[in-house]
Amino acid sequence: MSLFSDRVNLLDNPNAPRIGFAARLANKSVRTKYQLVLVEGPQAMRELLLHAPMAVKDIYVDVNLAGGPLKELVSLARQVTDFVHPCTPETFRAITRDGQGICAVVNKALLPMAEVDEVSLPEAGMVVILARIQDPGNVGTMIRLADAFGAQAVYLTAGTVDPTSPKVIRAAAGSTFHLPIITGQFSEIVSPLKKSGYQVFGTSGNASFTLDELLDRSQCSPSELSRPNLVESVAWVLGNEAKGMSDDEQELCDQLVSIPMYGLAESLNVASAAAILTSSTARIQARNQV
């Protein structure tokens, strides 16, 4: 199979309408209007092609890299679609300067993303709820963490950055295509989870109940186990970077939990906190095979 299909020609005009349209997908209003997403970079592209190939509409490749460092990825792309478009470097840069030579326009409806009222409740285990997280890098990193530690889903409340942002997708490093990403109002997310048996744990640096206590409670024999614990299903809520969780959000949680710190730092970055919480939960649940 040749690198490029006979159905496509070299794109050498940075001002061509299709190039401009792909570039405008960096804007949320354009993504929302057309229900399309821009996926950039080799790592995200590889996971897209492996886990959500049906969502691919068009792929754009810097022709100077197609036969070199991107050759294997371009070959994988050609197995998915003929519409792998070679671009001159200048034309590719007109779409994105963050793609490292490859990007794709993707149908959002065919990605594992949905509103909370469109999906069934997750299976037992762990989910992560991002409440009004503003930084795309933090959101992408926490999607990646949730994926790495076996979460069933990631929920994004109103006020959290758009998960289809190219910056979020880059930071997630392909995890966007591995697990459900569900959006909705905080109460509409939390209430069904609690009814289904999930314990909802909020995070607060001021909480008197600590992760260490939670871990200790999770070491009990099954006959002595009581809530709160990490053995049974857990939903971790991570609040806004600057303000944390709101009073209303905290009131809907079953328990507020703090991460004990033994050095001089006053606080943790929200993504660092998420790494500690999801890793701790995954370790306990793996031992108990939730």
Topology:
Layout: H1 17-24, H2 28-34, E1 36-40, H3 42-51, E2 56-62, H4 63-66, H5 71-80, E3 84-87, H6 89-95, E4 102-107, E5 113-115, E6 126-130, H7 136-148, E7 153-157, H8 166-172, E8 181-184, H9 186-195, E9 199-203, H10 211-217, E10 234-238, H11 247-251, E11 255-257, H12 270-288
Parallel strand pairs: 2-3, 5-8, 6-7, 6-10, 7-8, 9-10, 9-11
Antiparallel strand pairs: 1-4, 2-4
Helix pairs in contact: 1-6, 3-5, 7-8, 7-12
Tell me the count of domains: 2
What's the CATH architecture name of the largest domain? 3-Layer(aba) Sandwich
Distance between the termini: 46 Å
What's the CATH C level of the largest domain?
Alpha Beta
How many strands, which pairing sense, and closed or not: the largest β-sheet? 7 strands, parallel
**Anisotropy-based shape:** elongated
Rounded Rg: 21 Å
Indicate the structural class: alpha/beta
* Average residue pLDDT: 96
How do the helices and strands follow one another from N- to C-terminus? HHEHEHHEHEEEHEHEHEHEHEH
GO biological process, one term: RNA processing
Organism: Boudabousia tangfeifanii
GO molecular function, one term: RNA binding
InterPro entries: Alpha/beta_knot_MTases, Ribosomal_eL30-like_sf, rRNA_Methyltransferase, SpoU_MeTrfase, tRNA_m1G_MTases_N
